[in-house]
Amino acid sequence: xxxxxxxxxxxxxxxxxxxxxxxxxxxxxxxxxxxxxxxxxxxxxxxxxxxxxxxxxxxxxxxxxxxxxxxxxxxxxxxxxxxxxxxxxxxxxxxxxxxxxxxxxxxxxxxxxxxxxxxxxxxxxxxxxxxxx
Amino acid sequence: xxxxxxxxxxxxxxxxxxxxxxxxxxxxxxxxxxxxxxxxxxxxxxxxxxxxxxxxxxxxxxxxxxxxxxxxxxxxxxxxxxxxxxxxxxxxxxxxxxxxxxxxxxxxxxxxxxxxxxxxxxxxxxxxxxxxxxxxxxxxxxxxxxxxxxxxxxxxxxxxxxxxxxxxxxxxxxxxxxxxxxxxxxxxxxxxxxxxxxxxxxxxxxxxxxxxxxxxxxxxxxxxxxxxxxxxxxxxxxxxxxxxxxxxxxxxxxxxxxxxxxxxxxxxxxxxxxxxxxxxxxxxxxxxxxxxxxxxxxxxxxxxxxxxxxxxxxxxxxxxxxxxxxxxxxxxxxxxxxxxxxxxxxxxxxxxxxxxxxxxxxxxxxxxxxxxxxxxxxxxxxxxxxxxxxxxxxxxxxxxxxxxxxxxxxxxxxxxxxxxxxxxxxxxxxxxxxxxxxxxxxxxxxxxxxxxxxxxxxxxxxxxxxxxxxxxxxxxxxxxxxxxxxxxxxxxxxxxxxxxxxxxxxxxxxxxxxxxxxxxxxxxxxxxxxxxxxxxxxxxxxxxxxxxxxxxxxxxxxxxxxxxxxxxxxxxxxxxxxxxxxxxxxxxxxxxxxxxxxxxxxxxxxxxxxxxxxxxxxxxxxxxxxxxxxxxxxxxxxxxxxxxxxxxxxxxxxxxxxxxxxxxxxxxxxxxxxxxxxxxxxxxxxxxxxxxxxxxxxxxxxxxxxxxxxxxxxxxxxxxxxxxxxxxxxxxxxxxxxxxxxxxxxxxxxxxxxxxxxxxxxxxxxxxxxxxxxxxxxxxx
Lengths: 133, 781
Known about the structure:
The complex is a heterodimer.
Chain A: H1 2-21, E1 24-28, H2 37-44, E2 52-55, H3 61-71, H4 75-87, E3 95-96, H5 100-109, E4 113-118, E5 127-132
Parallel strand pairs in A: 2-3, 2-4
Antiparallel strand pairs in A: 1-4, 1-5
Chain B: H1 3-17, H2 20-90, H3 95-101, E1 111-116, E2 122-125, H4 138-145, E3 150-151, E4 157-158, E5 163-171, E6 177-186, H5 187-190, H6 196-199, E7 204-209, E8 214-219, E9 222-225, H7 231-234, E10 247-250, E11 255-263, E12 269-276, H8 277-339, H9 349-366, E13 369-377, H10 380-387, H11 389-406, E14 412-417, E15 420-428, H12 431-446, E16 449-451, E17 454-456, E18 460-467, H13 474-490, E19 495-498, H14 503-520, E20 526-535, E21 541-552, E22 556-558, H15 560-570, H16 573-593, E23 600-605, H17 607-610, H18 615-626, E24 633-638, H19 639-644, H20 646-659, E25 662-668, H21 675-680, E26 685-688, H22 690-695, H23 700-715, E27 719-722, H24 728-736, E28 741-743, E29 751-752, H25 753-762, H26 773-777
Parallel strand pairs in B: 18-19, 21-23, 23-24, 24-25, 25-26, 26-27, 27-28
Antiparallel strand pairs in B: 1-2, 1-6, 3-5, 4-9, 5-6, 7-8, 7-12, 8-9, 10-11, 11-12, 13-15, 13-18, 14-15, 16-17, 20-21, 20-28, 20-29, 21-22
Helix pairs in contact in B: 2-8, 10-11, 11-12, 13-14, 14-15, 16-18
């Protein structure tokens, strides 16, 4: 019992450290224009359209981290918000993509797409619109 | 006939109500009732309105929710049918991923799709369903047995992350059971549209199965699943469908709500929307409290206001009553004062006049006599002037009281004004009664009065007239009583007189005299005549006496004996006396300036003059104004006057002497004063009364008396003057007894100024009295 708790704690610390070490960046197509933090928040909360946001898998670490940093909301709040929009027929939540590679692929293919990946995953195919801290 | 008394009673009742103590509370009650009635009515209306609005709103929200739920359900069913179709078409594997790639599956956020084989094992799913086999689930088993869409349940309790499974049966090519396709939806999703701004914190939004079990319900932020309710009672009957939903109790949480429910067409589900009564009415409740507070404040206001107004009205009524009472009192007083004398309380002139007329009528009717007695206090003016008005008033009051004590109840005593009183004796048995009463009055008046601490005596003069012989009407009777009174005064005062015809003339004359006298001074009708006083040895003029004469244009020469008493009585003597002194002094000074020898001049002084408070002042100013030497002025005072109040006399005489004026005692021998008294006074001259001189040559005892008096005068070292010498014999006697001066007709009658001056000028040192009477009377030039 004690050892599993201890290892969980260790993992948590590592995870936290890992997350801290792993910065998230918002990426756009290299041809796309600049984008502000407010715009990102509005996009991912369904308050405005224009661009096409994409999500990482719901409930994943990066998903939770992104929403927290970009919109200041936790997963329950995000879910409730998007449920409401979806239920009342006012919109669709961002499409879920399986991983950062898929995100990069989607962003590179379409100048309207916006996504988020680990900073370390950034390459020449995409442009960093905004680092999140 | 019956209406009459009824109307009366009604009018009286209304009148009573109109009184302040009933009216104002009544008004207050009416106002309060109106206000509270309106307020409570308003509250009731507002509540009904709010209830109506809530019911309607719940109906509206139901409509919206229905549309949303139907859309979602249709999408779910579409997905189920799509997967079923694709799977049945293409086989078991890869269906979901293919559909997903084409974007044909609902969003991952809320939905997940899965396929289970005929054994219940999950072969595909968009997200991990958390279990490998669903064989145990009722939604699996149901599909194995049936074929329509089935909606699973969640366990009873808080919903949390629970997901609702929607399933359809998968068929093999031959129609056998081939497994199920499952779409799970976050239960919370179905109530994610809960709008707290419309539904409040205690409204309800929920999905039920046709089995009566809640799949999910939400109130505020809390979501629950699994409660069972009475499904049949929830849904409206066909006639209730269009009507407003009533308030009902939610059995799952005990809240009263306006709830609407509806079955979803094509699905084994129903929706429920409810608005909590307390919440919906909360605003109205607040407002109601506001209204009630205002009504309460208004009530207090009304009560206070009506209390205040009532009080004011009552006070007004009180003050009106008081005012009318005081007016009445005032009116009574005025009436009393109109008919009564303020000082004595006796009836006044106007009342007496009325009374007299009345009594005369009565006397005429019953053939009776009546008497009117006018009463005047003698020398009242002197008392008033010397002692002051307070003493005068006291005297009048006391007189009024004493007079009332002299008469019967049926008689009347009245005060006509000043010192005039009148007594009315209406039921005269005989003339004697009037006389008896008059006598009694005189006696009573004659008793001493105590005024300002001292004792004084007064007397009265009474004049009586009798009806019908002395007059038949008010004016005549009063006039004749007045005339009788004047006669009483003329008769020496302190007596009563009955009216008689012959009095009329005298009295008229007297009245004329008095009024003429008032104007005599200003009309310059007075003159001074001078009578020479001769020295007994040398026969020369040693001095003179100034005597007052009155030349009236109509009455002619009025003798002092006629007018002096009137002047004394009326007080006119004072200004007349001043004129006399002034004229005498001026004349003396004028003669001295002409070179005539300075002679003493004597002026008579009356009691009234003597007691005048300004006597010394006036004399001093006259002496100064005229430049007269005081030693040449001699004032003659009657002996009786001097001894009336010895101390007072002494004081005044001392004052006169300090001015340098000489004092002479007039009418000496008539006053019964002792030598001792005389010695106290600072006297310069004694004038022997003419009555003694007249007796000189008669019986020897009278001669002896005159002798004694001369001796008395001489013993006092005073100049002795004999008055009223008329015969030679008298003159001889007097000379023999060494009287100093003679004065009298024998030698000279009083002459006017210019004649007297001639007399003085004509005087030679050697003139003697031994000439003929004629010679002396007509002295040589």
